[in-house]
TrEMBL record:
It comes from the Bacteria. GO terms for molecular function: transferase activity. It comes from Paenibacillus lutimineralis. The lineage of its organism: Bacteria, Bacillati, Bacillota, Bacilli, Bacillales. The keyword Transferase applies. Keywords: Transferase. InterPro entries: Acyl_CoA_acyltransferase. This is GNAT family N-acetyltransferase.
Length: 307
């Protein structure tokens, strides 16, 4: 069971960072104490809001531990219906990015929600490097031969150096500052906000990963960055392998790469040998969706009568 305090801390970070309102909800049928769903939603200026750098909306379903599959299915439909009733009452556009473990989205489609499918890679831990591609294994050997070393860190300045250089190289922004990293670390704590850095032989931070543990047993890759001069030396791969080993030592069972929807990014994640896993984005239909559906229906009818 997820620790509600962990979600509450993540909510507090988002509230302070993005200047938004947060609502930690519990959807539970009347007189049912043993199954329910937790959900963290955000709003801004009175309208639904999804802060940047949130991989998913935290939606956690707790079924009766001893329930048979048909009963678990029924329980999910009951709590999903309560969630949907809440969503349809919210102002403005409402889009929920469900985490990969929410696989049954039929309650949403039955209520007319629009659905998009996206993908991520999920690795089981402990991890064997034999599952990785030869290219990854060779890069790890290269980093080891050049005396790079990886470890956990609480030095957010070292982490930020690496994030910043990736932003400059690729022309985008994480919208995360060094102060934001320190804020997240202070609120979530080192167990839920885990930072890893690869260092050169001289002690320079050259690559960084930041991982979230919002749900016990599962880690989510949050942000990462690498300095250009060291990018081809296998530092990314050495650091990632070290992280897998550290997470496994803490009893973490799964690592979520948090998205595989951009071709160049997806290829590098696929080389680790994880399972390609779908996740769903559900959207409350708005006026534009109704107009679009009407247009599609008219086009279909016109085409039908031409046959």
């Amino acid at each position: 069971m997820i620790e509600q305090t962990t979600l509450a801390k993540w909510a507090e970070f988002n509230r302070l960072k993005w200047k938004c309102d947060v609502d930690l909800l519990r959807f539970q049928p009347p007189k049912c104490d043993d199954y329910y769903s937790e959900c963290l939603l955000f709003s801004r200026y009175g309208k639904f809001y999804f802060p940047p750098q949130n991989p998913y909306h935290p939606v956690i379903f707790h079924a009766t531990p001893s329930a048979k599959p048909f009963r678990t299915n029924k329980q999910w439909h009951e709590v999903a219906e309560l969630m949907i009733e809440h969503l349809v009452k919210l102002r403005g556009a409402v889009t929920i990015t469900l985490p990969p473990d929410i696989t049954d989205i039929r309650p949403f489609t039955w209520r007319g929600f629009q659905v998009d499918v996206r993908y991520t890679y999920i690795l089981n831990l402990p991890y064997s490097v034999s599952l990785a591609s030869k290219a990854i294994r060779n890069k790890i050997k290269k980093a080891n031969a050049r005396s790079y070393s990886s470890k956990r860190t609480e030095n957010m300045k070292h982490v930020y150096e690496c994030l910043l250089e990736t932003e400059r190289r690729q022309g985008f922004s994480h919208q995360i500052t060094a102060a934001d990293l320190e804020l997240a670390q202070s609120i979530l704590g080192e167990d839920s906000f885990r930072c890893y850095v690869c260092y050169s032989e001289s002690g320079e931070p050259v690559s960084a990963n930041v991982t979230l543990l919002l749900n016990p047993g599962q880690a989510i890759g949050w942000v990462a960055g690498t300095k250009t001069d060291h990018l081809s030396n296998g530092v990314v791969q050495q650091l990632q392998l070290f992280e897998f080993e550290d997470l496994a030592s803490q009893g973490i069972k799964h690592f979520d790469f948090s998205g595989a929807n951009i071709a160049s990014v997806a290829e590098s994640k696929a080389d680790w040998g994880g399972d390609l896993t779908p996740y769903y984005v559900v959207r409350k239909p708005g006026f534009k969706d109704i107009l679009r559906s009407g247009r599609d229906w008219l086009q279909f009818r016109r085409g039908f009568f031409r046959i």
